[in-house]
Amino acid sequence: QVQLAESGGGLVQSGGSLRLSCVASGNTFSILSVGWYRQTPGKERELVACITSGGQSYHADSVKGRFTISRDNDRNTLYLQMNSLKPEDTAMYYCAADPLPTTVPSDYWGQGTQVTVSS
Predict the structure, then answer these.
(1) Beta carbons within 10 angstroms of residue 17's beta carbon
(2) Model confidence pLDDT, tens digit, residues 33-71
(3) What distance lies between CA 93 and its chain's CA centroid?
(4) What are 58-113's pLDDT values in tens digits?
(5) What is the pLDDT at residue 115?
(6) What is the DSSP string of 88-104?
(7) Closest Cα partner for 103 from 63, 72, 57, 62?
(8) Angle at 92 between CA 41 and CA 43, to 5 degrees
(9) Half-sphere exposure at residue 80, Cβ-oriented, CA atoms within 13 angstroms
(10) b vs e for 43-76, b when ≥16 Cβ sit within 10 Å of the residue's Cβ?
(11) 85 φ/ψ angles, rounded to the nearest 5 degrees
């Protein structure tokens, strides 16, 4: 069992930056595929970015060039650097992990951290 805890969300003005963090419990983080999803009320959860245990990363077209996913295996931590934020980035952001090599990690989920971008 892996427990995930997100932090770093908040209120920011359009054009601003935030860095989300997700700390994983246990000692298996380095072999997990991990990623960030986001969800707004009434909409389906969407994949924002993910990174495999081998370091391959994927970013959704809507955030490419603005968001960067990274991982620090020594700290059991996943990051999402978000720059040039837009009001449409407002959502609850969730960290997810999977023991399989996948670009859609979904076995374990964190509780989420709210990101609100004001115009």
Answers:
(1) 11
(2) 999 999 999 999 999 999 999 999 999 999 999 999 999
(3) 6
(4) 999 999 999 999 999 999 999 999 999 999 999 999 999 999 888 889 999 999 99
(5) 98
(6) GG-EEEEEEEESSS-SS
(7) 57
(8) 30
(9) 33
(10) eebebbbbbbbeeeeebeeebeeebbbebeeeeb
(11) -65, 145
Distance CA 73, CA 47 (A): 21
For residue 35, count other CB atoms closer than 10 A to its CB. Answer: 27
User: Which of these, 1, 19, 24, lies nearest to 95 by C-alpha position?
Assistant: 24
Rounded Cα distance, 10 and 117, in Å: 8
DSSP letters, 56-112, are -EEE-TTTTTTEEEEEEGGGTEEEEEE-S--GGG-EEEEEEEESSS-SS--SEE---
Q: Are 92 and 113 in contact (CB under 8 A)?
A: yes
Residue matched to tokens 């932090």:
7
